[in-house]
Amino acid sequence: MNKALRWLVPAVALVILIAAAALLYPRLAVRYDARDGAKEPAAAQETTTPSTERETAAPEESTVPIDAGVPTESAAPETASDLAPDFAVDNGQGSITKLSDFAGKPVVVNFWASWCPPCRSELPAFDSLYAEYGDRIQFMMVDLTDGNRETMPGVKVFVTEQGFQFPVYYDTTASAANAYQIYSIPVTIFVRPDGTLAAQQIGAMQEATLRAYLEDLLEE
After folding, report:
1. What is the value of pTM for the model shown?
2. What does the pLDDT profile of the chain (220 residues) look like in tens digits?
3. What is the DSSP string of the chain?
């Protein structure tokens, strides 16, 4: 009997100990997590950017505003059937060139400045496609030459250093900017041979986009 009791008492004690551990473990685990800041397993954490965050992300800047804007003297064309307003710019060689001088030929007019990052990003595309389409489409790369931040000598140096071959015209009197109400750049105008507006693109373009505009212009 005494021998049986000697085995029974430890067995009962072991059962009580296991039961107590089962009851106390959840509480101790909660206290441990709260004290040490235990985190969820890595597999349960968010690994992708929420769709709402992707949708509200700020788009890359495609235009740059012009300081203080440009005073408007004539209204820009509102529809593709409107006559493209004429303007006069310096051709950089001491003479004045007008948009109307190229009547009978499709014209692409790009408003830009050397200090404008979006403008600079698309200039190589204009230069490349000028080499390809320049015999069929007149390119007018109109620099907004304010005489302060943008000067004719400075732009000529920039164009030479970049190796651009397209023709540059200098809008020293804001004639072109006023005609099209240019408040930010770059802006590109596409004019049909009959002098009417075919399309207008606000913001920098990839070469493929510009090429599509030029092809459409040739089909007009």
Report:
1. 0.68
2. 455 545 555 555 655 655 555 554 444 443 434 344 433 333 333 333 333 332 333 334 577 787 533 333 333 444 555 899 999 999 999 999 999 999 999 999 999 999 999 999 999 999 999 999 999 999 999 999 999 999 999 999 999 999 999 999 999 999 999 999 999 999 999 999 999 999 999 999 999 999 999 999 999 7
3. -HHHHHHHHHHHHHHHHHHHHHHHHHHHHHHHHHHHT----GGGS--S--HHHHHHSPPPP--EEPTT----SSPPP-STTSBPPP-EEE-SSS-EEEGGGGTTS-EEEEEE-TT-HHHHHHHHHHHHHHHHHTTTSEEEEEE---SSSS-HHHHHHHHHHHT--S-EEE-TTSHHHHHTT--EE-EEEEE-TTSBEEEEEES---HHHHHHHHHHHHH-
